[in-house]
Amino acid sequence: MRVCGIDGCEEKHYAFSCCHKHYDYNRRRGTLHIPKKKTLTERILDNIKIVGGCWEWQKCVTPLGYGHIRTNGITRLAHRESYKVFVGEIPAGLYVMHSCDNPCCCNPEHLLVGTTQDNTRDRQEKGRGASGEQCGASKLTERDVLSIRSRLALGEKQAPIAREYNLDPSTISSIYTGRNWKHI
Ligand SMILES: [Zn+2]
Ligand SMILES: [Zn+2]
Q: Which whole number is the average pLDDT over 137-144?
């Protein structure tokens, strides 16, 4: 039989590690040790491992490598939640991007908000534009996806973009319609 957790008390356990008498006593004094719900900040810090400066998400990683976390019953992207907790609100319509190109990273210092145009520029500055670099569908970074989407939105044709990225045209159209990469 589980007994009361108070030193010297052998009464039957009732709740919160106390017998009925000690439960009542502590409840009245406001000293019941009710397990505290972890805050979002604590949950994020508990779920990461620091690898080379990146805070790599350890749980529930999507096929594209993004971390997932459930808050208020909704599954959300861990790096966006981390940005909100450690940096601030994400302005409407903006994306949270990784300066480290590591999708599962939640280090707020590696996260920045930007528009799809910023993504395109960033990509060009890093010399990853139309360099003919081999890039399979699974190797697309979020910047690639955002860049492809904004170029299509600006009226570029799908076929040349598909060639540039060495992708099947159907992949390009599914990026555009959001059938894949819905979360970006
Ligand atoms: Zn007791
Ligand atoms: Zn990082």
A: 64
